Amino acid sequence: MKLLLGNNALDYLFDPDIKSKWNRLAGQCQWATAFQQWEFISSWYQLYKDQYQPVLVLENQEGILTGVFPLAMDQKGWIIGAGADQAEYQVWIYQNENCLDFVHKAIQLLWNELPLNGIHLKYLPYSTPGLEFNSLRQWKNRTLLKTHPHPLLLADGEAMSRELGKKNKREKVNRLKRRGALNFERITDQNLFDHIIDDLITQCDFRKGAVYGNQLFSDDPFRKPFLIKLFQLGLLHVTLLKLDEEIIASNVGVMGNKWVHLQGINTHSPFQAKHSPGILHFLMLGQLLEKEGFEVFDLTPGADPYKSMLANQYQEAYELTIGHPLPILKRKWKQGINKWVKDGLKNKGYSDRFLKSSKANFIFKKQQWLHIIKQGPIFYFKKLLLNKNSSESGHLWKIEKNGGFDSVKQNGLNLEKNNLKDLLKYDPKGELVTKQAFLMDCMKRLEEGQQVYTYTKNNKLDFLVWLTHQPQSIIKKSNKLDIKTPSCLIYNFYYRVKGQNNGPLTLLAIKDCITHNLDKNILILSNQDYFQNKIEGFEIKPVLEV
Questions:
Q1: Which domains are delineated in the chain?
Q2: Dihedral through CA 419, CA 423, CA 425, CA 431, nearest 10?
Q3: What sequence ranges are listed for the domain BioF2-like acetyltransferase (predicted)?
Q4: Residue 404 has pLDDT above 70, yes or no
Q5: Residue 339: is it exposed, middle or buried by C-beta count within 10 angstroms (0-12/13-18/19+)?
Q6: Which terminus, N or C, of the chain has the lesser number of Cβ atoms within 10 Å?
Q7: How many CB atoms lie within 10 A of CB 336?
């Protein structure tokens, strides 16, 4: 057995004879996944070698490669599986199931030879042998093994067809078809994948940023080229659900051993969220996978509600942490307390979904308050005062059409309409809300059918305004107002630079909104007083104080 680090590991990996030996061993290993293939490991090592030090533990018997443990050391001194969070499963590969001695010696070698803080592997597959090393006296107090639910969708075309045929799914499909041509596509052409990947990344970062506060691709510039490389190597299964030319759902998953893994990119458009395009896409994907000879769509470990909705089989996956005795003891205590509290709440009738939602909401609010505290109380009250003019209360104005429409189409601001890339350019520095809170608010409004008009400058979101075709849902005292249909409301103005004269900017933006809604009665909700000015061809009159 030997340990290779850094460039020595890379030199070994790219030896001309190693690829075939490695993949032959991975093919013999019943618990190995696509994330242990030579193509995946070598591509990740090569791209991320400056962020993670390659670490390889190897075993050879009589000149034959019999064991490989592909790892990496992060910048905090932790050993993790090669691939980091892009490798859904991080595990050793061995020639047979009798790998306890290999695992024990490999971990002992790492512990003795490297200045590490610990070892963390998330996740190990259900069928992984050798985990009993944690009962050995040497590791018993240094090891924490945690189980996670692992939902699977077994490829069953008939079951997927029955699910799609249910009334609620059928109605959603029919509603989408009435809006345009609905097509489910498998992408196998490299040029086409290169053409669409930026749109998929935008949808992914927008939703992940809103729900989890993570923008995977914005935060990691190597993630996109890594996926492109995996597609070139034939390791990605890519499908789209399109409405005309609009991508409304997608899945980019790593594939191997007759499995497709929900790991890479999965998205759905906020503009069509009420039709559940993500769920429809997964069901259509289940039909396709059976036709293509795949056996399992791996929904990956976790208890997300949509996974439980789709899963037709469950396994367990493992999270392995090896460290110094005291930190491990603290982790075990924390895990035990969390389980005790969770079980107690469940006994009182609280569901897993409620508990997960409550935890996410607590973290969301915690980050929001930390953001405000970091910038200080003076900043907070100053911003409250400046933001008052863009609130959803104030005066209601109505645009009277006094002339032709041609003049309105000139000298506008050329706003972008419903551009997710622009929303991702929001800068939370100097603002009251975090980026996650901002994106969450935007996502909810878009899912409700509202429209957003944006203007960017120097690669930052400089201005936005919202428009809704349901004014009654926003306007307080709407019962006192005779709102004719069709009508739309322009409201909730955002300015990156506040405290200056934003009147000209706002009037130009309103021109663009009018241009897109010439057949509507247009209302404006704002505290600003410069709406007393006229837009050429139109006149803005106060209607109601809201």
A1: 2-148 (3.40.630), 156-294 (3.40.630.30), 386-545 (3.40.630)
A2: 160
A3: 167-308
A4: no
A5: exposed
A6: N
A7: 10
Query: How many Å apart are CA 306 and CA 313, to the nearest integer?
Result: 14
Query: What is the maximum alpha-carbon separation in the chain?
Result: 91
Output the CA–CA distances (angstroms, integers) from residue 151 to 171, 186, 262, 310, in the order listed: 27, 24, 11, 8
- For the chain, what is the mean pLDDT? 88
Q: What is the 3-state secondary structure (H, E, C) of 417-468?
A: ECCHHHHCCCCCCCCCCCHHHHHHHHHHHHHCCCEEEEEEECCEEEEEEEEE
Cα separation of the two ends of the chain: 76
Q: How many CA atoms lie within 13 A of 445 on its CB side?
A: 21
Beta bridge partners of 249: 241, 268
Reduced to 3 states (helix: H, G, I; strand: E, B; else coil), residue 314 is: strand
- Helical H runs in 29-67? 38-48
pTM of the entire structure? 0.89
Judge contact between 92 and 99, C-beta under 8 A: yes
Tokens 């004014």 sit at which residue?
471
Residue 237 Cα to chain centre, angstroms: 18
Q: Do residues 421 and 218 make contact, with C-beta atoms less than 8 angstroms apart?
A: no
Cβ–Cβ under 8 Å, residues 300 and 263:
yes
Q: What angle do CA 401, 406, 410 make, to 5 degrees?
A: 110
Tokens of 23: 């993949």
Give the whole-angstrom CA distance, residue 210 versus residue 215: 9
How far is 62 from 381, CA to CA, in rounded Å? Answer: 73
